[in-house]
Each structure stands twice: as structure tokens, then as C-alpha cells.
């Protein structure tokens, strides 16, 4: 019998493989991009020439160029420089696509995270820093104990949105031969030739990843700012 | 002698958000930047793989790709703004028959990678009888994705119009349709222009995804070049620089408009 979704259920293990890869890349890139973003954002608010220039060049360049171009350049470019990024760690094998994909995704998302965190850091009033300084805290202590904790709760909703975008961008990594959800879908589609079913299945898998995050974001937005979520009915004035 | 009656301009020194860390971070910063330039950037410039960019033919080849990219972005942004306004109105409608499909479309498409949508617009639409070449498939795919994002922006814009405007329009006896098209939307759209321009930046970057459906836009042209001459990093740097110029100018425009609006 041939019913809707038969080919998907028969190939579910292939989808599951890709799904796990997408999840792993996303989790690792989320962690790395948060670290990159924090460091770069701090470099941008610390007074001082060279590091600030590098931070600005990094954020502006990575934000204003397509992720696909960055991924391709890193994937095909790094081996030409003699950098092979594949290794075994704890019995797990990380191939070139996985490592470069995670790296590229972290760098791209990190630039956005840096911009977001910087916006959060700039909202914290200078008086806070001055107070911390007059209490004798060092640079890193001021940032870590005083400025960042105040900034981070402001940037949680925008960061959530960035991570949703990051999960979606991870699909692009299928073009550098990462065996993720997207490339598994293409593979299954070539095998069973049921475009619409495959497409629906992949969308459902991505929804499973992004919808909970989206709900979390709107929950935090309402919690942090209850007045923003105002509802207006178009014909309500009647 | 001219009497100076005007008060001298007030000197405002912008306070740094982190005062008191000038010397040490400065020295470290310039040192690191200097080392980076010496060890990485100068060797990268003089490695001799930039030769092909002295030829006119290469630039003409890239310009062809750039023209395709610009065309796709242009058509997609126009179409998706129109579709986005329709979707936003549908979403805000009181009638379930409009609201439910609009909400479903917006929420599902926004959660789906644009890469996926472009790819399946290319291979999926011919199966339901819509024959598209890769150029129009890219436009359709980008429009499907961007319209969902723009719908949310338009919705926010419509909601940001003061409620008094609506009430005034209604009390003047305007029908809901005219209230929308004559009173609310013009104000909302004016406020949304910066957001639409920033979405255009994403759109320009997303045009590179049409690479996967073999459309000869900027990124595909770049691939053709590096596959022939074997200089991935250099070619991709040039490609990235072209995208950068476009997107950076757009982001400046967006910022300028945002300042103007406030």
C-alpha cells in the first residue's frame, strides 16, 4: 500500500542521523559563538586601539558577507594553507565538514552575538563601571561581575532569535558536505522521488528545533517587558 | 568689535563605559594588530595568487554574476513586501478564515531555512506543474521566505501606529479598508522602512544560496573561477568583499533612516 509519508517512515533512520548532526553542530556552535561574542563585545567596549579595530573588522566583515561564501572559503581554503581539521576525540570521529562547519557557523553567529551583547553592554550606565572602579575592581572583574550580569538579561530574547537563525543557517552547511538534515533530505528525495513529502518532513524536523526556542523567546520577552506585548484588534475601535 | 552674545558651545565629553583602562589595553591591542598584519596579512597579499584579478575578463565575469544577484534581490524585495503586507493584514484580521492561514504560513516559513525553501522551490514546483528556470525559482524561493519575515515587521509597524489614529478615522466614518490603506499603512510603512532595508541585507546575502540551484549569480561565478585557477581563499575574499560593500552601504542607509525617523 502506498500512503502519504511511507517513504519518510521507511527512511526515518536516515533523517534521524541528519537530525542528530544538525543538533550537535548547533549546540557546539551556540557555545563557541557565545564565547566569541562575549570576548569580541568586551574588546569593543574596552578603550584601546588595536583590539577594538580588529573586533570591528571582524563583526562588520562577518555580518555583511554571506554565510555560504564564508563556509566555502573555509572548507576549501584551509586545506590549501595546510590546515587539516579532522581529529578523533574520546573515540568520536570529527571529520573536516563537521569541524569546519562548526567553526564557520560559530564565526558567523559570533559576529551577530557580539553586536547584540555590545548593545546590551552599552545600555548599562557608565556610573556602574565607575562605581566598580572606585571599589577597586580590575578590568575583567568589572566586566564579569558588574557589567555583563546586567547586560545579559537584556540580551536573552535577541540571543534566542539569533540561535533560531543559526539553526536555520546550519542547513547551508550541507553544501560543504556535512551530512545534516538538509543533505539527508536531498539524499532521500533522490532515492524515493517524493519531493513534497520529503519537504514536509524536513520542515517538521526544523520546527521541532526552532519552535521551542521561539516560545522561549516570547516567554522571556513578556517576562522582562510585560508592556511590549500589547494587542490591538483592527476593528476594535468600533 | 562684535559683542559675543551667544553662549559658548557646551563641551560634552562622551564618557567611556569603561573608564580607566587606557594604557595597558592600548599597548596590547596595537601589538597584536601589528603582529597580525606582519604574520598574516602581508604574506597573504604577496602570495602571487592574485594575478588573475588583473585581467579585465575576470571582472566582467564577476559583473555578470553581480547583475544576476542584484536582479534577484530587487524582484524578491518588491514581491515580498507586497506579499508581506497582505500576510500581515491577514494575520491581524478578525476573521479566522484569513488569520489562521496567514499565521500558519508565517510561523512555518519563518522556522524553515531559506536554503531549504529555495532548493525545494526549484525541484518541487515543476512537479505541481509550475515550470520555472533557476532565476525565477530563486526569486520565488526568496520571496516565500522573506515575505514571512516582512509580514512580522509590517505587523509590528501596524501595531505601533497610535490607536487614536484608528479611532479618529473610524469617527470620521472611514470604512475599515480605507482606514487601513489611507491612514494606518502609510504611517506604518514609513516607520518600517529601516527594518525593511535591514531585511534587504539578509536578502542580498541569501541570494548566494541560489548557488545550490546552479544559478550563475556572484557566488557561482566565484566557484567557477576558483575551480579553474585554484585560488579559493583569494577568489572568495574578492566575492565576499563585493557582498560586503553592498551590504555595508545598505546597513548605513538603514541606520541613517532610523536616526531620521526618531
Could you explain how this protein is built, in words?
The complex is a heterodimer of chains A (238) and B (262). By secondary structure, chain A is mainly alpha-helical. Helices cover 75% and strands 3% of the residues of chain A. Chain A is built from nine helices and two strands, in the order H-H-H-H-E-E-H-H-H-H-H. Chain A has helices spanning 6-10, 12-45, 49-63, 67-80, 96-123, 126-134, 139-169, 181-192, 195-224, and strands at 87-89, 92-94. In chain A, strands 1-2 form a two-stranded antiparallel ribbon. Chain A starts with 5 loop residues before the first helix and ends in a 14-residue tail after the last helix. Residues 226-238 of chain A have low confidence and may be disordered. Chain B is mainly alpha-helical. Chain B is globular. Chains A and B meet through helix 3, helix 4, helix 6, helix 7 and helix 8 of A and helix 1, helix 4, helix 6, helix 7 and helix 8 of B.
SSE arrangement:
The complex is a heterodimer of chains A (238) and B (262).
Chain A: H1 6-10, H2 12-45, H3 49-63, H4 67-80, E1 87-89, E2 92-94, H5 96-123, H6 126-134, H7 139-169, H8 181-192, H9 195-224
Antiparallel strand pairs in A: 1-2
Helix pairs in contact in A: 2-3, 2-5, 2-7, 2-8, 3-5, 4-5, 5-7, 6-7, 7-9, 8-9
Chain B: H1 23-45, H2 56-92, H3 96-110, H4 114-124, H5 134-160, H6 163-171, H7 176-206, H8 218-229, H9 232-261
Helix pairs in contact in B: 2-3, 2-5, 2-7, 2-8, 3-5, 4-5, 5-7, 6-7, 7-9, 8-9
Amino acid at each position: 500500500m502506498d500512503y502519504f509519508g511511507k517513504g519518510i517512515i521507511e527512511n526515518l533512520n536516515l533523517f534521524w542521523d541528519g537530525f542528530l548532526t544538525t543538533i550537535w553542530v548547533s549546540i557546539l556552535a551556540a557555545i563557541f559563538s557565545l564565547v566569541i561574542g562575549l570576548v569580541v563585545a568586551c574588546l569593543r567596549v574596552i578603550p584601546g586601539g588595536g583590539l577594538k579595530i580588529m573586533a570591528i573588522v571582524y563583526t562588520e566583515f562577518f555580518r555583511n558577507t554571506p554565510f555560504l561564501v564564508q563556509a566555502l572559503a573555509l572548507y576549501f581554503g584551509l586545506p590549501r594553507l595546510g590546515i587539516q581539521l579532522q581529529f578523533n576525540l574520546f573515540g568520536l570521529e570529527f571529520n573536516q565538514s563537521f569541524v569546519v562547519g562548526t567553526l564557520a557557523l560559530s564565526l558567523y553567529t559570533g559576529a551577530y552575538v557580539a553586536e547584540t551583547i555590545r548593545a546590551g553592554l552599552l545600555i548599562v550606565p557608565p556610573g556602574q563601571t565607575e562605581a566598580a572602579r572606585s571599589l577597586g575592581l580590575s578590568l575583567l572583574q568589572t566586566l564579569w561581575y558588574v557589567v555583563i550580569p546586567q547586560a545579559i538579561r537584556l540580551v536573552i530574547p535577541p540571543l534566542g532569535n539569533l540561535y533560531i537563525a543559526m539553526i536555520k543557517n546550519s542547513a547551508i552547511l550541507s553544501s560543504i558536505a556535512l551530512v545534516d538534515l538538509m543533505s539527508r533530505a536531498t539524499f532521500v528525495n533522490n532515492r524515493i522521488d517524493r519531493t513534497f513529502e520529503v519537504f514536509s518532513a524536513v520542515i517538521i524536523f526544523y520546527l521541532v528545533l526552532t519552535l521551542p526556542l521561539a516560545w522561549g523567546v516570547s516567554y522571556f520577552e513578556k517576562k522582562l517587558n510585560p508592556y511590549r506585548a500589547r494587542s490591538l484588534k483592527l476593528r476594535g475601535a468600533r | 568689535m562684535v559683542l559675543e552674545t551667544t553662549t559658548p558651545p557646551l563641551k560634552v565629553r562622551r564618557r567611556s563605559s569603561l573608564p580607566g583602562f587606557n594604557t595597558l589595553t592600548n599597548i596590547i591591542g596595537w601589538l597584536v594588530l601589528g603582529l597580525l598584519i606582519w604574520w598574516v596579512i602581508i604574506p597573504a597579499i604577496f602570495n602571487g595568487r592574485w594575478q588573475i584579478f588583473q585581467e579585465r575578463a575576470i571582472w566582467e565575469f564577476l559583473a555578470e554574476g553581480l547583475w544576476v544577484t542584484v536582479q534577484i534581490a530587487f524582484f524578491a524585495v518588491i514581491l515580498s513586501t507586497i506579499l508581506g503586507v497582505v500576510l500581515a493584514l491577514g494575520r491581524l484580521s478578525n476573521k479566522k478564515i484569513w488569520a489562521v492561514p496567514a499565521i500558519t504560513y508565517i510561523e512555518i516559513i519563518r522556522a524553515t531555512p531559506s536554503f531549504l525553501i529555495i532548493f525545494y522551490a526549484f525541484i518541487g514546483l515543476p512537479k505541481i506543474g509550475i515550470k520555472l528556470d533557476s532565476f525565477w525559482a530563486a526569486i520565488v524561493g526568496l520571496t516565500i521566505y522573506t515575505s514571512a519575515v516582512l509580514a512580522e515587521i509590517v505587523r509590528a509597524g501596524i501595531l505601533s501606529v497610535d490607536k487614536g489614529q484608528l479611532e479618529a478615522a473610524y469617527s470620521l466614518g472611514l470604512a475599515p479598508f480605507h482606514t487601513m490603506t489611507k491612514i494606518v499603512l502609510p504611517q506604518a510603512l514609513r516607520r518600517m522602512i529601516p527594518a525593511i532595508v535591514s531585511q534587504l541585507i539578509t536578502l542580498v546575502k541569501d541570494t548566494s544560496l541560489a548557488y545550490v540551484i546552479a544559478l550563475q549569480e556572484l557566488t557561482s561565478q566565484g566557484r567557477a573561477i576558483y575551480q579553474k585557477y585554484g585560488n579559493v581563499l583569494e577568489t572568495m575574499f574578492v566575492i565576499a568583499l563585493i557582498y560586503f560593500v553592498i551590504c555595508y552601504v545598505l546597513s548605513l542607509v538603514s541606520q541613517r533612516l532610523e536616526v531620521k525617523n526618531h
